[in-house]
Amino acid sequence: MFVIVLRYRAPMETIDALRDAHYAHPDGVFAQGLAQLAGPLEPRTGGVVIADGERAAVEAAVASDPFVTSGAATAEILRFRPTWPAERVPWLHTRDADPQR
Where would I find the YCII-related domain in this sequence (predicted)? Predict the structure, then answer.
């Protein structure tokens, strides 16, 4: 699994103008089914995505995101291994042990 941290580098007007393209991005983490959970940071300085999939697919999706390609945001991709999932997150209990995910 991965935590993707987006940090805005452009004025909020630019971010707002790119938002629809970011959500609709055909090769993005949402369209590819990689995103499990996502939302903005508070205060509104970026966003966080929890993604699951192969590292190469996550990296490619993030690199081609309109926020990133325009320079409006930077992205940091952090791999983590969930070892203590809450009962209310049942899909984490059924994950395989693939170390590349």
Answer: 1-80
Give the pLDDT confidence score for residue 82 in this predicted structure.
Answer: 81
The answer to whether the beta carbons of residues 91 and 36 sit under 8 Å apart is yes
Range of the domain at 28: 2-94
Instruction: Retrieve residue 18's tokens.
Output: 């790119």
Does the pLDDT of residue 76 top 80, yes or no? yes
User: Is there a domain that residue 100 lies in?
Assistant: no
| pLDDT of res. 93 | 56
pTM of the model: 0.83
Report the C-alpha gap between 20 and 80 in whole angstroms: 29
Query: How many domains does the chain contain in total?
Result: 1
Distance, CA of 91 to CA of 80 (rounded, Å): 16
The total number of residues shown for the chain amounts to 101
